[in-house]
Design a protein that fits this description.
alpha/beta; Alpha-Beta Plaits; 2 domains; 8-stranded mixed beta sheet; 15 strands; 36% helix; disordered N terminus; binds zinc ion
């Protein structure tokens, strides 16, 4: 098959987007759902990941031949391409694993089998098209195409393909430690997160490239209330579930204070010129009217509210196991996204004060601090320049990512971790990530390859092609 050829989808004639789409469709057919943290992969899981690896080697033979390869964890891959200099290496990341779908995908509402890799009407459909096999494919296509052209990296290039991002990201954690042991400090890390987003803020008609420069912290805690229990015919008042319920109401009623972080202010100020005139003018004044603007974001809806404060989601509830048995223990799980600028200690302190009930025990299941903020310097600009090449005229704005990525682990090693996939996502597509009918435009895959080619050969990171 031809790797190069004029494509209808991109103007450069270097990238054949249809071929990239075909490669992606084939990779989607491996249901690479990672086992739960601490569990061994079963046979089907092993076959999916090994199958994916074999395909990657088939599609990208030069890349796999040129790289020194480390396995991290069961199926994570860390590739190193030796550059002219080992100084200021670059690390590109994309994960292999996907979130599961229901076995009865039709009942769930998928129009196509999520693991069939269907290409239709200029789009590729299936679980992982946007999260994150789409980015993985365009990254590898870019590398392979450059190697075919005889490109040699100016600096060491690492490529990390984690295989358990959706579970915890132990592979990324292991890779971070491996690099740390070897004394490698990436000058720039690029992982998933932002995108070329359409319909991202009300009133903005243009597509906007949002690049994550930090991400919120992630914390899960259990609220536990113990009780003597007994027969349901003689219930005490209050019972364990009532005490727990009151605690949950108190959590909802006592939110942490909302604060507009400097990066979020930058997001809005960068995008202000693309907003309707009056809104744009108001947003530009946001630094002066910070309090008013923050309150406005709080009232706009859950998405903008999550931008300005720590969120508490009640995700699991547990009471008695039988319908005529009193609960001896009532339990709730809170999934907490910690605002940048807040610590997990402060969150615990807040919870204790908000609940204000010693009968409610707070047990921490996991805690990750918010990530440090990456600089908006020449590295951020290098990403911006590559966006301009692939998606001309698209504004580039920094933002704080609300969800968690593998990038958070790397942030303990590198001061410059950026979160951006060079794929276009409109509102429906963004909702399909971890949802139903996940899909990516074929044209966007072509542009994604252009993005990585441009980033790797651009002025900031390496010499251009001769
Ligand atoms: Zn992902």
């Amino acid at each position: 098959m031809r790797l190069f050829g004029r494509s209808k989808s991109t103007g450069t004639g270097v990238v054949n987007a249809e071929l990239v789409a075909d490669h992606l469709a084939q990779l989607l057919r491996f249901p690479t759902v990672a086992p739960d943290r601490g569990e061994e992969p079963d046979e089907a899981c092993a076959a999916a990941f090994e199958g994916l690896h074999a395909k990657l080697r088939e599609f990208y033979p030069l890349a796999f031949a040129a790289a020194e390869i480390d396995r991290v964890g069961d199926y994570g891959l860390l590739l190193r391409f030796a550059g002219a200099s080992a100084e200021e290496p670059v690390l590109l990341m994309a994960h292999q694993d996907v979130v599961p779908t229901s076995a009865d995908w039709e009942a769930e509402g998928w129009p196509h089998d999520p693991f069939a890799g269907v290409i239709e009407d200029g789009r590729v459909y299936g679980r992982g098209t946007l999260d994150d096999k789409g980015a993985l494919v365009v990254m590898m296509e870019a590398l392979e195409s450059l190697l075919i052209q005889g490109w040699e990296p100016a600096r060491d290039l690492y490529v990390l393909m984690g295989a358990d991002e959706e579970k915890y990201g132990t592979n990324a954690l292991d890779a971070t430690e491996l690099l740390r042991e070897r004394g490698v400090v990436p000058h720039l890390v690029l992982d998933e997160g932002g995108a070329v987003a359409a319909e991202v803020f009300p009133g903005i008609k243009k597509d906007v490239a949002v690049v994550g420069v930090s991400e919120k912290g992630l914390m899960s805690v259990e609220l536990i209330v113990d009780d003597a229990g007994g027969h349901a015919s003689t219930p005490p008042i209050p019972s364990a579930p009532t005490v727990l319920a009151q605690a949950l109401l108190n959590v909802d009623a006592n939110q942490m204070p909302a604060v507009l972080h400097e990066v979020s202010r930058e997001t809005f100020v960068t995008l202000a010129p693309y907003m309707p005139f009056l809104v744009g003018r108001m947003v530009k004044g946001a630094s002066r009217l910070r309090k008013t603007f923050t309150n406005l974001l709080l009232k706009q809806g859950p998405e903008t509210a999550a931008m300005v404060r720590t969120t508490f989601a009640i995700t699991q509830l547990e009471g008695s196991p039988g319908m005529n048995v009193l609960a001896t223990r009532a339990k709730a799980t809170l999934n907490i996204r910690v605002a940048v600028g807040v610590t997990t200690d402060e969150v615990l302190e807040h919870l204790t004060t908000a609940i204000a009930d010693e009968r409610v025990a707070i047990q921490v299941l996991e805690r990750n601090e918010p990530s440090p903020v990456s600089p908006r310097d020449e590295r951020f600009d290098a990403i911006g320049a590559a966006v301009e090449n692939a998606y001309p005229g698209t504004p580039v704005a920094p933002y704080i990512m609300l969800a968690a990525s593998d990038g958070r682990h790397l942030a303990t090693l590198s001061p410059a971790v950026y979160r951006f996939s060079p794929l276009r996502m409109d509102k429906a597509q963004r909702a399909a990530v971890h949802g139903i009918d996940e899909n990516v435009e074929v044209a966007s895959l072509g542009r994604g390859v252009e993005f990585y080619r441009s980033l790797l050969t651009g002025k900031a990171l390496g010499p251009g092609l001769k």
